[in-house]
Every structure is written in C-alpha cells, then in structure tokens.
User: Which sequence fits this backbone?
C-alpha cells in the first residue's frame, strides 16, 4: 500500500476515512443509508462514492461499488491491486466480493456490520482461501463517528415511521 511515508499510517487512514465520512453525510442528506467510500492509490483519491440505492433504484449502487467502478475508470484497469478502499461501514458480501475480484490491496472500514458484514463480522469473503485473491482488512478507523452517523440515520427513520 503506497501511502505518504512522511505521515504515520494511522493518520493517513483517519484522513481518508474522514473523506469517506463526508460522502456518507451526503448520502444521509439524500435519504440514503449513510455509507461513503473512497479508493486511494499513491496517496491520491482515484475513486469515490456514496450509497445511491434509492436515488438510482438500483440494489447494487452501494458506496463501494460506485467507488470501485470510478477507480477502475480513472486507472483504466479492472484491477486495483495497489489501492486501498476506505469505507465507513464493513462491506456486505457483494462489495467484499467486488474488492476481491478487483484485486484490491486493502480495505479499511469504520463500523462493523453485525448483520451483513463480509470482512470478518458475519462472513469473511475478503480473506477466503477459496477465492483467488485475499484483501488485507483494517477495521475500526473513526469507528465511533461512522457508527454515530448510522445510528442517527436509523433513529431518524424510526421517528418518521
């Protein structure tokens, strides 16, 4: 993972997760589940996205899928082996699978997902020995901020019901 060697790695993780959180806030404002994602290569954002499932009426329009597609377009490659995906919520099976198929170097996530998490919580697709690639996973970066945004979103939805 090629990041800025002048800055401690945890600070770099926090900086990029903060960018993903800004995207998650945008999703929140648009009534989407607040998840944001950025793909980074050589200390540069090459792809970003936030959940747009409701807006696009597309169950695959998760933040990670949009960010991975954008990164592949930017880099003109279907493989992202020297890239890091920062995402505010642990990837679901679809998104974890996309990180494996794109040969992502690593996934860094904030909040764990006890219902659908596929990077260690419920499933561990990113580390499956049955697949042709394993993705390094780092969890808990800005975890409390990521959890707070998700809890606030679902609390707001419950109040509206």
Assistant:
């Amino acid at each position: 993972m090629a990041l800025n060697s002048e800055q401690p790695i945890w600070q770099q993780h926090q900086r990029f997760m903060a960018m993903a959180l800004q995207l998650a806030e945008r999703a929140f404002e648009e009534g989407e589940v607040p998840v944001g994602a950025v793909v980074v290569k050589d200390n540069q954002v090459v792809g970003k996205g936030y959940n747009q499932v409701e807006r696009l009426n597309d169950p695959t329009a998760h933040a990670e899928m949009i960010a991975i597609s954008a990164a592949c377009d930017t880099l003109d490659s279907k493989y992202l082996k020297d890239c890091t995906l920062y995402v505010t919520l642990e990837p679901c099976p679809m998104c974890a699978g996309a990180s494996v198929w794109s040969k992502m170097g690593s996934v860094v996530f904030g909040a764990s997902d006890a219902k659908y998490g596929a990077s260690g919580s419920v499933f561990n697709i990113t580390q499956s020995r049955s697949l042709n690639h394993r993705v390094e996973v780092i969890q808990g970066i800005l975890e409390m901020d990521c959890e707070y945004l998700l809890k606030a979103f679902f609390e707001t939805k419950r109040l509206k019901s």
